[in-house]
Amino acid sequence: MTTTTPEEENGVKRRDFLYIAAGGLGAVGTAAAIWPFISQMNPSADVLALSTTEVDLEGIETGSEVTVVWQGKPVFVRHRTEEDIERAEDVDLADLPDPQPDADRVIKPEWLIMVGICTHLGCVPLKGQGDYGGWFCPCHGSHYDTSGRIRKGPAPLNLVIPPYEFLDDNNIKIG
Amino acid sequence: MSFEPKNPVVKWVEDRLPITGMLHHALYEYPTPKNLSYWWTFGSLAGVMLVVQIVTGIVLAMHYTPHVDMAFTSVEHIMRDVNYGWLLRYMHANGASMFFIVVYLHIFRGMYYGSYKAPRELLWWLGLVIFLLMMATAFMGYVLPWGQMSFWGATVITNLFGAIPVVGDSIVTWLWGGFAVDNPTLNRFFSLHYLLPFVIVGIVILHIWALHTNGSNNPTGVELKDKQDSIPFHPYYTVKDLYGLAIFLIFFSAFLFYAPNYMGHPDNYIPANPLVTPAHIVPEWYFLPFYAILRAVPDKLGGVLLMFGAIAVLFALPWLDKSRIRSARFRPIYKQLFWVFVLDCILLTYIGGKPAEGAYIIWGRIATVYYFVHILILLPLVGLFEKPKPLPASISEDVLSKKPASEEAANA
Ligand code: HEM
Ligand code: FES
Fold it and tell me: For chain A, first and last CA: distance in Å?
């Protein structure tokens, strides 16, 4: 380029502006067109609707546990013994990979309610096994204590406490 | 050498779409090094296995139902009721294993003879892309029968993405289409399991295109110098490959007819149960080395990164290997390291199938560390310090120098 045309100003040409504007708009349009194709893979309305589960606690004896299904996932409902509760409370938080006091994980100490999915890669841990008297995940060897907190193994976090409330003394609603 | 069709119809087509000429060039006259060993047969065997998987897969899809309530029974229906259904399903299930056996040998061949070195880096990359797509396809296929291993394999593998910081959980929910592996997951896996093999076909075409651009490597690693060094693909290698195929099909049939479940897991004949994980879950054998690497790290994100890293480093091989000599035949130290590496991969496969406890954890860690030490440290260093053996001047010289004199006299 040797001659300077009237459109040119500080080396920026009208054409450059048009390229960027057209390209930018094209990119936005393409992204908008792709979005439905991505979004369709997220949970659909009916899957989102199945969001609460009610559990009758009567009949779950001290020391035993039932598994209920909430949002397609297993939830452990554990009726803890005095000893379980003591073991869970009597822990130095500094020893825990994911420190959390037992009191923050229960509404009533005798009822421990948590999603029965190992926070490593999603297997269902087995109760009454492992080194801490709680749960043990056989998939890659994670040990959980009587509060469902991770103590040893590859899992990074404690077993998740789902949102739940006591409807009355013997009934809870999860979700 | 150009292609001059005699048949007027072929000529008419050729003038408008030179496809016959292209095939003629690729499968007939393609000048091939004259010294290729049977290690070069695995490429065409992989191609055959891809076709076997597609053909058996398409007919299985005619009888299979991708729904959580019916998938398991539809596979049993294929096994018991559909004419030859048992044969087709066993061909497909064992075919996947055969495909991986062939491709693993093909990859090790490339590593031994330095086939990834310039000018074949892209060829190597395309091969690794095929390998990744195969893994994705086989993983999703294994979910389709909806047995216990299907379900828990799908759960564990999709959860790997949960290790990604911040967005991990949203990605996993997006992959599942729900809050656990469920019907939406099964449906999309079926759709993708049908699609990906055809994507593989596309990449295979690019792979062969790249191959034919610079020609095949060969056991000496020395490039073709003149006409004396090469022979046309047909009939020499078509026949050699067909013979290899015949032997391979005997091997395939032995599994297919006498041990069709040998490489599977009994747990996958139990219908999926989202509330109970089998005591010992393991992936299919072809994923075991990577699974062992995943478990060697006592940290979720670390394990996932290292597992993907194990494949990522293979992409860098052409630049990590500092030696200009391709073939391990002329690299005394690399040759030994190569075999140690093979043993290490076998050890990883073995460990991956064992529970993560006691000595298995220790050995898994040692084997994992060695895998990366070989590729990231030993390979570059050996290339710099090793003193290679003298290379033959040409393929012909190498071939002739090895022939016993008596045979040469008989041929004269
Ligand atoms: C790269 C090629 C392919 C590989 C590696 C592959 C691998 C697999 C594997 C490992 C299974 C599970 C087998 C079992 O344990 O039952 C499977 C199942 C299945 N595949 Fe494929 N597949 C391929 C191509 C295809 C294609 C092109 C289709 C066409 C739709 C297909 C349709 C199916 C169906 C319907 C099933 C479920 C029935 C069954 O479990 O046997 N596959 N595949
Ligand atoms: S899924 Fe529980 S330890 Fe890996």
Answer: 69
Work out whether strand A126-127 and strand A111-115 pair parallel, antiparallel, or are unpaired. Answer: unpaired
- ipTM for the predicted complex comes to 0.82
On the 0-12 / 13-18 / 19+ scale of CB atoms within 10 A, A58 is exposed
Distance B385 CA to ligand 2 centre (A): 44
Residue B248 neighbours by CB under 8 Å, 6+ apart: B41, B45, B98, B102
Which residues, at least 6 apart from B151, have a Cβ–Cβ distance to it below 8 Å? B143, B181, B272, B273, B274
Q: Is A143 an interface residue toward B (CB < 8 Å)? A: no
The closest CB to that of B177, out of A41, A74, A124, belongs to A41
- As a whole number of Å, the end-to-end CA separation of chain B is 28
Cβ of A154 and B277 within 8 Å? no
Per-residue pLDDT of chain B (412 residues; tens, 9 = 90+): 468 889 999 999 999 999 999 999 888 999 999 999 999 999 999 999 999 999 999 999 999 999 999 999 999 999 999 999 999 999 999 999 999 999 999 999 999 999 999 999 999 999 999 999 999 999 999 999 999 999 999 999 999 999 899 999 999 999 999 999 999 999 999 999 999 999 999 999 999 999 999 999 999 999 999 889 999 999 999 999 999 999 999 999 999 999 999 999 999 999 999 999 998 889 999 999 999 999 898 888 898 999 999 999 999 999 999 999 999 999 999 999 999 999 999 999 999 999 877 899 999 999 999 999 999 999 999 999 999 999 999 999 999 887 654 444 444 3
**Residue minimizing CA distance to atom 35 of ligand 1:** B61
Q: Tell me which residue in A47, A67, A139 faces B281 most closely, judged by beta carbons.
A: A139
pTM for the full model? 0.90
Place of tokens 């006591």: A166
**Three-state DSSP class for residue B36:** coil
